[in-house]
């Protein structure tokens, strides 16, 4: 382990407590104050993304971009309580609360117990504070239980008619597919599924074309297409289905737009008011690093130039504050959030995580996360070739911080579930520190069986050295398993 990393791991092992600040250097104290314990934001230059056919030149370019702000990210890394004996690269499944968020969580829990408080209300103050980081108003940000709960709110609240068609993809998560299937059985809707491409040979326009052509074909058959539902990014290949581009298709066909954005909060610095989708269901517990059982559901509650379509007819399905008023005339997110007595400390902790992200700068985090994943992709290309990538790397609109690839020297081994599981397990057990990654299964057009790709999440507690060690270890293991 290099010296910087050792220091960093030591800092992580003993995370700073606010009361320990007296022992810190003034520079470090000032940094922490700005970042976590005070308001204000840091104006920091975004990294420039590289685009080169030469993987090796591209990776060294990306590496030097990552190095530019090494000290800053080292301080950020020191704010988490992650165990030093593992490198956590499965944020796509679960994030980790930073110390400052853990502090709020426990203090609020203690205060609640000390005062025997209840949790009635709709958390309007917290929702308004969180909404600022997402480009919408407080009446458009609801706190949900997680992404899946947000997808249930969105899909099952729509006033469906029998025969309505929802166009979606074959790379969706059960969190979105489950309410969709309930709507099939309960309301008689139909689902039309588009098979998605994988790998680097695709662009944003590929998705516009795929959805637009399918909708036109359905309409040609006399079908009533009502909605589009898609993941941005998909949890399988990490491909960012481009929301802004797909919203052009939504508007051209006057559709309801439902985005499974499980991975968006905390990873991407999106302005949801400017994007204009009807529903975006995100997790609070993944990239946003809030507590478990938290989600952020953005619901369009006003007509903006980004989406002048009428607000869809929708009714709450999980609430204790039903408001009998027309859509747009009331705080729809309050209705969704308020359902009996809430776990207020949990949502205060989520709001604190959002505040921390706003203070660092959501764009800065997005740029760092994407630069890490672009660096990882180029390193994979150097070793395995571009054909090994399931995630696209060259169209900036399709990038996310999830990277998925085929690590096997015998490429067909990627259809062997057992082998993929062994690869994941050995990446943790055979190396020190071990790597926490996962495998994901998905359909590949023309393939005889499902592929079990290896998925890696890159986030603000990683650096270029982590990626170097990861790639070296994966190369060694794939050789040993050949
Ligand atoms: C695309 C996608 N949707 C939904 C979910 C479900 O997330 P949650 O546990 O927040 O409900 C996940 C979880 O990984 C996901 O990746």
Automatic annotation (TrEMBL):
SUPFAM superfamilies: PLP-dependent transferases. The keyword Chaperone does not apply. Keywords: Aminotransferase, Lyase, Plasmid, Pyridoxal phosphate, Transferase. Gene3D superfamilies: Aspartate Aminotransferase, domain 1, Type I PLP-dependent aspartate aminotransferase-like (Major domain). One of its GO terms (molecular function) is lyase activity. Residues 1-22 are annotated as: Disordered. InterPro entries: Aminotrans_V_dom, PyrdxlP-dep_Trfase, PyrdxlP-dep_Trfase_major, PyrdxlP-dep_Trfase_small, TAT_signal. PROSITE patterns: TAT. Residues 123-405 form the Aminotransferase class V domain. This is Pyridoxal-phosphate-dependent aminotransferase also contains a Selenocysteine lyase domain.
């Amino acid at each position: 382990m290099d010296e910087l990393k050792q220091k960093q791991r030591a800092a992580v092992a003993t995370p700073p407590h606010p009361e320990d600040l007296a022992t810190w250097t003034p520079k470090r104290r000032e940094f922490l104050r700005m970042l976590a314990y005070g308001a204000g934001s840091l104006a920091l230059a975004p990294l420039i993304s590289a685009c080169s056919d030469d993987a090796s030149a591209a990776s060294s370019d990306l590496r030097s971009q990552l190095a530019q702000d090494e000290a800053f990210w080292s301080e950020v890394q020191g704010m988490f309580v992650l165990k030093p004996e593992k490198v956590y690269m499965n944020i796509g499944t679960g994030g980790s609360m930073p110390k400052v968020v853990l502090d709020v969580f426990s203090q609020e829990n203690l205060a609640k117990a000390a005062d025997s408080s209840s949790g009635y209300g709709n958390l309007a103050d917290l929702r308004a504070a969180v909404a600022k980081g997402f480009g919408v108003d407080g009446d458009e940000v609801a706190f949900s239980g997680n992404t899946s709960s947000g997808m249930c709110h969105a899909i099952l609240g729509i006033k469906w008619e029998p025969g309505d068609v929802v166009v979606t993809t074959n790379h969706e998560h059960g969190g979105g597919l489950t309410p969709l299937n309930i709507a099939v059985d309960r309301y008689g809707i139909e689902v039309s599924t588009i098979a998605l491409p994988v790998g680097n040979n695709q662009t944003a326009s590929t998705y516009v074309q795929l959805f637009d052509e399918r909708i036109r074909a359905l309409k040609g058959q006399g079908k009533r297409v009502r909605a589009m539902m898609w993941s941005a990014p998909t949890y399988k290949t990490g491909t960012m289905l481009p929301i802004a581009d797909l919203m052009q298709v939504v508007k051209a066909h006057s559709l309801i737009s439902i985005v499974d954005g499980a991975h968006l909060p905390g990873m991407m610095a999106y302005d949801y008011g400017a994007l204009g989708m009807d529903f975006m269901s995100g997790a609070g517990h993944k990239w946003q690093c809030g507590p478990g059982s938290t989600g952020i559901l953005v619901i369009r509650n006003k007509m903006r130039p980004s989406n002048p379509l009428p607000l869809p007819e929708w009714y709450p399905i999980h609430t204790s504050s039903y408001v009998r008023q027309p859509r747009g005339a009331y705080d729809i997110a309050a209705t969704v959030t308020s359902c009996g007595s809430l776990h207020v400390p949990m949502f205060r902790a989520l709001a604190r995580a959002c505040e921390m992200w706003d203070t660092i700068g959501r764009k800065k985090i997005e740029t760092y996360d994407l630069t890490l994943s672009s660096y990882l992709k180029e390193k994979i290309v150097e070793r395995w070739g571009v054909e090994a990538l399931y995630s696209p790397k060259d169209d900036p609109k399709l990038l996310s911080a999830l990277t998925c690839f085929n690590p096997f020297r015998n490429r067909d081994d990627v259809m062997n579930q057992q082998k993929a599981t062994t690869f994941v397990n050995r990446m943790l057990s055979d190396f020190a520190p071990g790597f926490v990654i996962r495998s994901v299964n998905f359909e590949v057009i023309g393939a005889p069986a499902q592929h079990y790709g290896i998925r890696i999440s890159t986030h603000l507690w990683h650096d270029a050295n982590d990626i170097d060690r990861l790639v070296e270890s994966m190369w060694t293991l794939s050789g040993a398993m050949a």
